[in-house]
C-alpha cells in the first residue's frame, strides 16, 4: 500500500517538470538583442535604480574610508611613532646630555628639528627624578613643517602623562625604558640607577591625528597625489563605484530577462493550456487512488478501536481487582487496630507504679543477689513499658496507611512528626528540627506514608549512633527545605557513615540491606512509597573531618489543587 501511495505522489512532479522543460526550450529560442537591452537601460525606472546604486556606493565609500582612516592613524602611524620613540630612547638622551652640558644651543635645536616636527620632542630644565615635575620650564622645542597639531596650545602642564628620558652629566649609556613591541601602549622600565647629575629631561609627544573631515577634505584636494593614504582612498572609491555599477547592470539585465520571459510565456499560453488539461486528468486519477488509500486508513482505524476497547476492558477489570484487594487490606488493618486496642496490656497504665514499688523494695533488701534480680526485673519492666508506648504510638499512625493521598503542607507534616517522635527515639537520642524555607510547600501524598519514609531514615541514623554510644555525643538533625524546585527533607547524623554497598543500594533496590538488625524490609517499603509519589532520594557520607551521613528525600511540588 505504501508503494501505491508513493507512485501516486510522484506523478505531479513529473507533470510539472514536463511543463517547465518546455518553457525552458521556448526561452532558449528567444533572442536577447543588445539594442533592446540598451533601450531598457535608458528607461526611467532603470535610471532611478542607478541613482539608488550610486547612493549605496557613496555610503560604502564613507564606511570603508572611515575604517581605513581609523586603521591608518590609530594603528599604523601609532606603531611607527612607537618604534621612533623606542629608537630615540636608546640614542637621544646620550647626545642631548652631552651637548646640553656644553651649552651648544644651535646643536640642540638642530637635533630636535631633525624629525621635521612629525611628533613632539621637548627639553625641560627639570632636575629631579620623580615622574611629576611641577616647577619645570620648557627650554627647547622641536620645530618643523608638520608641528601644527602637537604644538597647538602646548604648556608645561600638558607634558604630564607623556614618556620622557632624564638627561645627566656624565651622559647615560643605557636606556631607562623601552616598548616591548610596536603594538604596546605602555613602556617597560629597565632596572638601573641614575648616575651623575640630573641636568634636564626630554619629552616625546605623539602627533594627534586630524579629524576624519579634515582628512577627507585633504584627500579631495590632493586626489591625484601619489601619497599612500590618497591611493588607498582612491582605490576604495573606484572599487565601490565599479562594484555598484556592475551590480546595477546585473539587476537590470535580470529585469530585462524577466520581461522577455513573460512575453515568451504569453506566446505559448495555448500550449500551457493543453499541458494543464493533461495535469487535471492526472490529478483525477490521483484522487481516485487517494480515495482507495483513505478506505485502507478507515479499515485500520476500525481495527485499532476494537483493539483499544478490548485493552481498556482488561485494564478496568484489573483496576477493580486491585481496588478490591486494597479494600480488603484496609478492613484487615482496622481489625488489627481494634484487637490491639482491646488488649489488656495496652489498657494497663500502672506499669510505672509497679516499677516504683519494686525500686522501693530493692532499697530495703540486703542480699546482693536479690538486689541484682530486682534490678533485672525493673529493667525488663521498663523495656516492656517502652514497647507498649511504641505499640500505642504505632497504632495512632497505622490507621492512616490505607487512606487516599491528599494535598498536604510538607513542612507542617514534618513538624508534626517531630513533635510526636517514636518513644524509643524521643527518650534516647538528641533529635533537632530546622525549617529553612519561608514558602508553603504543597505536595500530593498520604501523610502517614511521608512520616514512614522519614521515620525509616531516622531509625537508620539512631542505629548508627547506638553503635557509638559512650564514644560520641550523638545528634540527629531533621531539616525541611527546598531543593531543585522540590520539597526536601534531610536527615543528618554524626555517626560513622554508611558502608559503600549500603550507600549505593539504600532505597534503590529490593535487596534486604540490614537483615541482622531486623526484618530488613524498611528500605524496600520506602522505595515503593518513593515510586508511588514520584519522589527522589539523595544519599552521601559527610566529607572529613566531619562525621556521619545525610539522606535527602525530594517530593514534586504542587502549586494548587488543580495540579494534583
From TrEMBL:
Single GO biological process annotation from the record: phosphorelay signal transduction system
Coiled coil spans: none
SMART domains: HATPase_c (SM00387)
Enzyme class, spelled out: transferase
Reaction(s) the record says it catalyses: ATP + protein L-histidine = ADP + protein N-phospho-L-histidine
Any Pfam family the entry gives: HATPase_c
InterPro entries for the chain: HATPase_C_sf, HATPase_dom, His_kinase_dom, Sig_transdc_His_kin-like_C
E.C. no: 2.7.13.3
Swiss-Prot/TrEMBL keywords: ATP-binding, Kinase, Membrane, Nucleotide-binding, Phosphoprotein, Transferase, Transmembrane, Transmembrane helix, Two-component regulatory system
Residues spanning the membrane: 46-66, 230-251
Single annotated GO MF: protein histidine kinase activity
Coiled coil among keywords: no
Histidine kinase domain span: 346-559
Gene3D superfamilies: Histidine kinase-like ATPase, C-terminal domain
Name of the protein: histidine kinase
Amino acid at each position: 500500500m505504501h508503494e501505491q501511495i508513493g507512485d501516486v505522489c510522484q506523478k505531479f512532479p513529473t507533470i510539472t517538470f514536463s511543463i517547465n522543460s518546455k518553457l525552458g526550450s521556448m526561452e532558449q529560442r528567444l533572442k536577447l538583442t543588445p539594442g533592446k537591452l540598451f533601450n531598457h537601460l535608458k528607461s526611467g525606472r532603470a535610471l532611478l535604480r542607478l541613482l539608488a546604486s550610486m547612493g549605496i556606493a557613496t555610503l560604502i565609500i564613507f564606511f570603508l574610508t572611515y575604517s581605513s582612516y581609523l586603521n591608518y592613524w590609530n594603528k599604523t602611524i601609532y606603531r611607527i611613532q612607537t618604534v621612533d620613540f623606542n629608537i630615540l630612547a636608546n640614542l637621544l638622551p646620550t647626545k642631548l646630555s652631552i651637548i646640553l652640558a656644553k651649552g651648544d644651543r644651535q646643536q640642540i635645536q638642530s637635533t630636535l628639528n631633525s624629525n621635521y616636527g612629525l611628533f613632539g620632542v621637548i627639553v625641560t630644565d627639570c632636575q629631579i627624578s620623580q615622574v611629576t615635575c611641577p616647577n619645570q620650564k620648557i627650554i627647547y622645542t622641536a620645530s618643523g613643517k608638520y608641528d601644527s597639531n602637537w604644538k597647538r596650545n602646548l604648556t608645561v602642564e600638558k607634558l604630564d602623562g607623556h614618556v620622557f628620558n632624564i638627561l645627566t652629566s656624565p651622559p647615560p649609556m643605557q636606556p631607562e625604558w623601552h616598548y616591548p613591541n610596536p603594538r604596546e601602549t605602555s613602556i617597560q622600565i629597565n632596572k638601573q640607577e641614575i648616575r651623575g647629575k640630573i641636568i634636564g629631561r626630554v619629552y616625546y609627544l605623539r602627533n594627534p591625528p586630524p579629524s576624519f573631515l579634515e582628512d577627507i577634505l585633504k584627500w579631495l584636494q590632493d586626489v591625484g597625489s601619489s601619497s599612500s593614504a590618497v591611493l588607498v582612498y582612491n582605490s576604495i572609491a573606484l572599487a565601490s563605484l565599479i562594484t555598484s555599477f556592475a551590480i546595477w547592470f546585473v539587476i537590470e539585465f535580470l529585469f530585462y530577462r524577466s520581461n522577455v520571459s513573460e512575453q515568451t510565456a504569453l506566446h505559448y499560453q495555448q500550449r500551457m493550456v493543453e499541458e494543464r488539461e493533461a495535469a487535471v486528468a492526472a490529478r483525477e486519477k490521483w484522487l481516485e487512488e487517494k480515495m482507495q488509500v483513505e478506505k485502507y486508513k478507515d479499515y485500520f482505524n476500525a481495527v485499532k478501536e476494537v483493539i483499544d476497547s478490548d485493552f481498556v476492558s482488561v485494564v478496568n477489570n484489573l483496576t477493580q481487582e486491585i481496588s478490591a484487594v486494597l479494600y480488603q487490606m484496609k478492613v484487615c488493618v482496622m481489625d488489627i487496630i481494634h484487637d490491639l486496642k482491646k488488649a489488656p496490656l495496652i489498657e494497663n497504665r500502672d506499669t510505672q507504679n509497679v516499677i516504683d514499688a519494686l525500686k522501693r523494695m530493692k532499697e530495703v533488701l540486703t542480699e546482693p543477689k536479690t538486689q541484682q534480680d530486682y534490678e533485672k526485673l525493673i529493667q525488663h519492666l521498663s523495656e516492656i513499658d517502652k514497647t507498649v508506648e511504641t505499640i500505642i504510638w504505632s497504632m495512632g499512625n497505622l490507621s492512616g496507611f490505607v487512606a487516599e493521598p491528599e494535598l498536604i503542607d510538607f513542612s507542617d507534616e514534618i513538624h508534626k512528626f517531630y513533635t510526636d517522635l517514636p518513644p524509643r527515639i524521643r527518650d534516647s537520642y538528641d533529635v533537632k528540627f530546622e525549617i529553612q524555607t519561608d514558602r508553603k510547600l504543597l505536595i500530593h501524598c498520604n501523610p502517614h506514608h511521608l512520616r514512614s519514609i522519614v521515620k525509616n531514615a531516622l531509625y537508620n541514623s539512631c542505629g548508627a549512633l547506638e553503635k557509638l554510644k559512650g564514644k560520641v555525643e550523638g545528634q540527629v538533625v531533621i531539616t525541611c527545605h527546598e531543593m531543585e524546585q522540590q520539597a526536601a527533607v534531610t536527615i543528618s547524623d554524626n555517626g560513622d557513615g554508611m558502608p559503600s554497598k549500603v550507600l549505593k543500594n539504600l532505597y534503590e533496590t529490593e535487596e534486604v540491606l540490614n537483615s541482622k538488625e531486623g526484618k530488613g524490609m524498611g528500605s524496600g517499603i520506602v522505595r515503593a512509597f518513593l515510586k508511588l509519589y514520584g519522589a527522589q532520594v539523595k544519599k552521601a557520607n559527610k566529607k572529613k573531618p566531619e562525621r556521619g551521613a545525610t539522606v535527602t528525600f525530594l517530593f514534586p511540588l504542587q502549586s494548587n489543587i488543580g495540579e494534583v
